[in-house]
């Protein structure tokens, strides 16, 4: 038995097999092959494996998100079996004597370019699908791909680090816990693990040889226990049963109001990064979605999501929430959330650089596409729009003017748009200090304590070397929250907290006394916060 000590970012216990996850090289090198038949056999084996994977993905997706949304994998399967694409790859191997990876990359690029040249959103999306398929095939050929079909239920993913888009793409049905060597508590990977309700450890050392071994992730004590002995295993199985029992008890709070003992109300919303989180928000009886991180619609993709694609996602989120409010934050890309196709040049201080609303205001077409998609979706539920990383009044005015233009455009096209609340995130000290002025031009405030802590204490939330200094409980941060609440209420607008601090049940009472109107927390934290609220005056 070996114990690796790390830091927990989400409590819970998981018992399962370890998969040491390695980020693959994407580079494809051209090699001359002598044995063409052998190369063709290698290609056939990879194609069969890919077909099996896609069929499994399709079936998993059908049960997770329904047949309509799972069609994407069915479409992928059709491309994977497309005779023209396959013949082009085989032809290159036969005639040019090149390796299968290179042939797949060339053929993929050829067909993707053909689709891209057609001026039609649907066809352009197919270009992305072709790239997805050829990338998957290349990954299998290079032996650097996690075989999701072969992954056991409850697999413990152990990695150096995971980017938010990598975490998003993990099969939620199969993953039991995350353990990373690097990482920071409010990094988006940690936030995603919490939203997936999985025990997660950061800053945990490990050795690659633990791959495939049985392990326990103790998300309470913060340890990874590899090859546990019988007694430890028995002990943790018992603890796991108790955890499950506690979760069942929490479910008895479903349907009860978000009220303190003395009857004061503080609504509890859930944060979401994707459609699955919406289901989990409903299961946990969230009042609504207080923060939908729309940037995840953009991450893990080959190119910008179209207006239609975004509209479908936002509409689905609104429809699934059945009239409960959904606050969708406009694109907050940059810093740790990167999508290569944005082509953002490396920056010395990305957290202080080109991100979030700054990008949207400098790229009007990008912003317009998202705003149009949001406003078109608005009639399918109760939408609110929220702008991130606000520092100045001019930014709020400019963002609202863009939304107003998008609305006018849609109305001229004959599309009725209901009224939508437009709020801002308070996550910079600048916004706190002028919150009295900002409150006059916003319908609501939502305090992003993750960034607010980073900028108030001048501590990079991603840098594990200064992690100990990242303290959202610091009096300076709490006073920022208090001042924001005071100014919001003086102007008659509501104020919420959507950063991770909102789920700190030790502070629920203090937030209540500050007059915070709502908190938005990861879905699994809705009921624990309700419990804490009901125990406070
Ligand atoms: C925050 O900064 O607190 C927040 C909610 O936004 P994000 O964590 O996505 O930056
Ligand atoms: Mg933020």
Task: Give a concise summary.
The protein contains 19 helices and 16 strands.
* Small molecules bound in the structure, each named once: phosphoenolpyruvate, magnesium ion
User: Whole-Å distance between the termini?
Assistant: 46 Å
**Uncertain segments:** none
Task: Give the strand order of the largest sheet, numbering strands 1, 2, ... along the chain.
Answer: 1-8-7-3-4-5-6-2
What proportion of the residues form beta strands (DSSP E)?
5-15%
Net shape? globular
Number of E strands = 16
Q: Helix- and strand-based class?
A: alpha/beta
Topology:
Layout: E1 2-5, E2 7-10, E3 13-21, H1 36-65, H2 67-80, H3 83-96, H4 100-116, H5 121-141, E4 155-159, H6 164-169, E5 175-180, H7 188-195, E6 200-202, E7 214-218, E8 223-226, H8 230-251, E9 267-272, H9 275-283, E10 289-293, H10 307-320, E11 325-329, H11 357-362, H12 364-377, E12 382-387, H13 393-412, E13 421-426, H14 429-433, H15 435-438, E14 445-447, H16 449-457, H17 475-490, E15 495-497, H18 508-514, E16 518-521, H19 526-535
Parallel strand pairs: 3-4, 4-5, 5-6, 9-10, 9-16, 10-11, 11-12, 12-13, 13-14, 14-15, 15-16
Antiparallel strand pairs: 1-8, 2-6, 3-7, 7-8
Helix pairs in contact: 1-2, 1-5, 2-5, 3-4, 4-5, 10-12, 12-13, 16-17
The chain binds phosphoenolpyruvate (PEP) and magnesium ion.
